[in-house]
Write a structure and sequence with these properties.
Number of strands: 10
Largest sheet: 5 strands, mixed
Distance between the termini: 33 Å
Shape: globular
Length: 742
């Protein structure tokens, strides 16, 4: 591993590079200064107070004040704002006579930052509405104390700052290491395989084939375990997030995850007898492990396939162990349960691997003939030969055709449920009352929540949360109903599990809605108070471009571009590396151009397959600007194909392409700015991110597909893709001419 440059890079350089990118990308931690817009057509004292409040909220920045909502939505399509507060004309003139409403629109196509921006604007407007309500109460001759609403104190257990560094850092980095360790071990075991046989290994190891294979895999376990422990040290020690539970259990969990990753790689190589198929299987089970891990959208009540597959994948069990021990301080018993599952997977896979290795050691090797023959000159000849070679070159066709089709339906399966459903919560009340019963009824009716228990003490709720039984708790004080009716209510405490920020949002929304309904029912016995409360300015929150606020509608359109890029990038790279590996003659510039055009055509067809059929079949946002998508697809595909041809030249064997590049997929998704915005990243990292075509593609295709943006409105991203197309494409041809001249 030390003497071979690529082995050394994969073991020491690539993990350092990707972990450094993740650490730098998430270093800001908490969303700050998200650009928002305010459409103030009322220009009243209330709207001005609300705007002043917005300017004081640290999470948002009032960047634009357009005259109309249409102008503000145009700014949103251009990616300049993430939410819009609209104060309609004549807003204040209807005071005391009719209910009034402020609308906060947020960008549902970029849901994470959009929802957080809307939350900042909602908070500012609600604060202004409180003072407005007190003014109206005085005009109606009511004491302000008679209108005092119950205060709600929300506590995020384990992550009170709502830090994305802790959430995404804990989710992304171990998933990347899981994939890197698996790919590295596949090549370590695969290079011992010859023609589907371990016969040569049996000879050089004097018959000790299984132990020899384990010896080859052991260094990968040690190295990637150390990288995992280093990341835990960085996140919990250097960055200061700490460990809420047991450090030994957390470290043991990381070591077990890497052990499972390495052993499963040996198992897949021995089972399939082909290194390329083993790489494909590894990419399927570990490449989408984050999506199926319950770390983002909960799958507890999702489709059956997603739930079963999530329970099978080892990363799901590790992430649950890590969240409990790192974030929420879960009881050791829950961690031992997940640790036992990981150990059981490792032992079963190890036993099966030993049996399969012995069986393959007794088989005679088969002749291998992997080639990708192309004419050395001629654009048309190379273009046609590329398509003719696809059925015969299985490593290439599996990437450019089979993987594209498979991932079109496999990855979205994790998000078929779209929204969180049936999240378990508890209600803590010293005594059952009609109000607490009504709250249980409202929470169960919310569809998002399920009241798992009605408890008497907060300690019971905290223990259930640490055990992972519930995701939240609503704590009502003594005599809450009587004090609410008297106008002097005590506060309500809401505890949420900070280990899963997507669940926090769902639980928080449902609790807020149910509590508001209960308070309104309780105030019905106070007519004057209820009448004044109904005249208070109300806030309506609306998700634009994703009206159902579905997580799949938000995540899959952006992830699809990573899938399209990585399959085409890997396919192009494998072609070039395979030709170098087999000693194929060098291609002239015309043949290289024909190959590039063929790959561009394949990539374009894949884009249209996704943006047309797949998005229609899965009912994802699509065809907002159909002709813009059609025109830009070849530019995106051409830049990716050219980059793949350039990268493929540097690898000594075609398996290296997958070993090195597969692990970059998840970081590239986050660098694209869909889940974590660019204004929160260091500028130099954003510049580097735009060297990958997927970054500009996400910023262009998602607005065009989901938001109806035109090519002009995403012109910056279009220009970047055109520049990459020219630079990378020119480099493909120029490299050939320079080599010929040399």
């Amino acid at each position: 591993m030390v003497s071979k440059p690529w082995d050394a890079f994969v073991a020491f350089g690539l993990p350092l590079l990707l972990l450094a990118v993740i650490a730098s990308m998430l270093s800001s931690g908490v969303i700050r200064n998200a650009p928002v817009a305010v459409v103030d057509q009322d220009n009243s004292a209330f709207s001005r107070e609300a705007i002043r409040n917005m300017q004081a909220v640290p999470t948002i920045r009032v960047a634009y004040s357009p005259a109309t909502v249409d102008e503000a939505v145009a700014l949103m399509r251009q990616g300049k704002v993430y939410s819009i507060a609209h104060f309609p004309a004549g807003f204040s003139e209807g005071a005391y006579r009719r209910p009034e409403q402020v609308t906060v629109h947020f960008n549902g196509a970029f849901q994470t930052i959009g929802a957080l921006s809307a939350l900042g604007q909602n908070t500012a407007i609600a604060a202004a509405a409180t003072s407005q309500l007190e003014t109206r109460a005085r005009h109606m001759g009511l004491p302000a104390t008679g209108l005092e609403p119950p205060s709600v104190q929300v506590s995020i257990i384990g992550n009170p700052q709502l830090s994305f560094e802790l959430f995404l850092g804990g989710l992304l980095a171990p998933g990347v290491l899981h994939l890197l360790a698996a790919c590295s071990a596949v090549l370590a075991a695969g290079r011992l395989l010859h023609g589907g046989s371990f016969q040569n290994l049996k000879k050089v190891s004097n018959g000790r084939t299984p132990t020899s294979l384990i010896g080859h895999l052991l260094p990968h376990f040690v190295i990637f375990t150390l990288w995992g422990l280093a990341w835990i040290g960085w996140l919990c020690g250097v960055r200061g997030w700490g460990i809420a539970g047991s450090m030994p259990l957390l470290l043991l969990g990381m070591a077990t995850l890497i052990a499972v990753s390495v052993i499963l790689s040996g198992f897949l190589v021995a089972l399939l007898g082909d290194i390329d198929m083993a790489f494909s299987a590894t990419a399927i089970y570990s490449g989408a492990a984050i999506a199926f891990s319950n770390g983002t959208l909960p799958l507890d009540h999702g489709p059956r396939f997603a739930r079963i597959w999530s329970d099978i994948l080892p990363y799901t069990h590790y992430l649950r162990l890590q969240t409990g021990q790192m974030v929420t301080g879960a009881a050791p018993g829950t961690a031992w349960h997940d640790l036992f599952i990981l150990v059981a997977i490792a032992l079963v896979a190890l036993i099966l691997t030993i049996l399969l290795v012995r069986w393959r050691a007794g088989r005679a090797p088969k002749t291998e003939a992997l080639t990708f023959n192309l004419p050395t000159r001629g654009i048309r000849a190379a273009f046609i030969a590329t398509f003719r070679n696809l059925p015969r070159a299985r490593p290439v066709s599996s990437l450019l055709i089979l993987a594209v089709v498979l991932y079109a339906f496999y990855y979205p399966a994790a998000y078929t449920g779209q929204t969180a459903v049936g999240l378990p919560v508890a209600i803590v009340t010293p005594a059952r009352t009609p109000l607490s019963d009504k709250l249980v009824e409202n929470l169960n009716a919310s569809h998002a929540l399920d009241v798992a228990a009605v408890l008497q003490t907060p300690l019971q709720a905290r223990q259930m949360m640490r055990q992972g039984v519930i995701d939240g708790a609503i704590i009502l004080p003594d005599n809450f109903e009587a004090r609410l009716a008297s106008g002097h209510p005590d506060g309500i405490a809401v505890w949420l599990n900070g280990g899963y920020l997507v669940r926090v949002t769902s639980v928080g929304k449902a609790v807020a809605g149910a509590s508001a309904q209960v308070a309104e029912v309780a105030l019905q016995g106070v007519p004057e108070t209820a009448r004044a409360a109904k005249l208070a300015p109300t806030i309506r929150q609306q998700s634009l471009f994703n009206p159902t606020q579905g997580y799949g509608d938000y995540a899959v359109p952006a992830v699809s571009l990573i899938i399209l890029q990585q399959t085409l990038l890997l396919g192009a790279g494998v072609i070039m590396a395979l030709r170098r590996e087999t000693g194929a003659p060098a291609l002239q510039a015309s043949a290289k151009l024909g190959l590039w055009l063929a790959l561009t055509a394949i990539g374009t067809l894949s884009c249209l397959f996704y943006f047309g059929f797949v998005f229609w079949f899965q009912d994802y946002p699509r065809a907002g600007d159909l002709w813009g998508v059609v025109l830009l697809a070849p530019v995106f595909s051409g830049s990716v194909a050219a980059l793949g041809l350039l990268l493929g030249r540097i690898f000594d064997r075609h398996e290296r392409v997958l070993q090195v590049l597969v692990g970059t997929s998840a970081p590239l998704f986050f660098l694209a700015g869909a889940a974590w915005p660019h204004f929160m990243m260091p500028p130099f990292l954003v510049w580097l991110a735009y060297l990958s075509p997927s970054t500009a593609a996400v910023q262009a295709f998602v607005p065009m597909n989901a938001m109806g943006a035109s090519l002009g409105e995403v012109s910056n991203s279009v220009i970047v893709l055109c520049v990459l197309f020219i630079v990378y494409g020119g480099a493909v041809v120029a490299a050939t001419r320079l080599r010929k001249r040399a």
